[in-house]
């Protein structure tokens, strides 16, 4: 079930911040009323597609920060695993140099509540609790506004890396909508014409484009 238009699930969990410090009780609530958040899940530390995404977000971090947007990552690995990966050089498959927070969802409850856990719990015929699927997170990306409302989400299957430029485009679109009260048409980018949500506005946009 989509979270768009709903409050982002609340959590408190360990996280590594600034690429070097483990803290307890990290929460997205610290951003409420202050800034938007791009909260993204990745499947697992020390893998293959995941470091390309994590490092790509770091390469664009200044662009997100310029827009006043926080970037936060999460996976079902432990905080110790995150820290070890952050201390591993890029040429050895690591993500050294990443500075935004990485949350440790070891109980898998955050991924479950955000609807990105790649499997589910069930009971077998003996009444024993089992897990069907893969106990890691899909590549979920959530754009959360200053009020803590999810305004956009995408969920990719495990092999499908996401586009960080598209995430930036969606941030620009959300901020444009909130600033100007206009709506953003297909393939809209910052600097392009938007339109009013009326028949006249749509007609004018289609005529000019």
Automatic annotation (TrEMBL):
Domain Thioredoxin: 2-176
Family that this chain belongs to: Belongs to the peroxiredoxin family. AhpC/Prx1 subfamily.
Function: Thiol-specific peroxidase that catalyzes the reduction of hydrogen peroxide and organic hydroperoxides to water and alcohols, respectively. Plays a role in cell protection against oxidative stress by detoxifying peroxides.
Recorded GO MF terms: peroxidase activity
Record InterPro entries: AhpC/TSA, Peroxiredoxin, Peroxiredoxin_AhpC-typ, Peroxiredoxin_C, Thioredoxin-like_sf, Thioredoxin_domain
SUPFAM superfamilies linked: Thioredoxin-like
Superkingdom of origin: Bacteria
Pfam families: 1-cysPrx_C, AhpC-TSA
Keywords, comma-separated and alphabetical: Oxidoreductase, Peroxidase
Name of the molecule in the record: Thioredoxin peroxidase
């Amino acid at each position: 079930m989509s979270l768009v238009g709903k409050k982002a699930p609340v959590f408190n969990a360990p996280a590594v911040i600034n690429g070097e410090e483990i803290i307890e009780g990290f929460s997205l609530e610290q951003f409420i009323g202050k800034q938007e958040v791009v909260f993204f899940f990745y499947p697992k530390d020390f893998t293959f597609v995941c470091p390309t995404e994590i490092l790509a977000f770091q390469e664009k971090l200044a662009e997100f920060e310029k827009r006043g947007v926080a970037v936060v990552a999460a996976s079902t690995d432990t905080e110790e695993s995150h820290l070890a990966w952050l201390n591993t050089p890029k040429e050895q498959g690591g993500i050294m140099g990443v500075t935004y927070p990485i949350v440790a969802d070891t109980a898998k409850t955050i991924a479950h509540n955000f609807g990105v856990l790649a499997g589910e719990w069930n009971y077998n015929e003996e009444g024993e609790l089992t897990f069907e699927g893969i106990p890691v997170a899909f590549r979920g990306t959530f754009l959360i506004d200053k009020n803590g409302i999810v305004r956009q989400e995408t969920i990719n299957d495990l092999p499908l890396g996401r586009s960080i430029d598209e995430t930036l485009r969606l941030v620009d679109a959300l901020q444009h909508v909130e600033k100007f009260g206009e709506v953003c048409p297909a393939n809209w980018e910052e600097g392009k014409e938007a339109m009013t949500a009326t028949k006249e506005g749509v007609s004018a946009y289609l005529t000019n484009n």
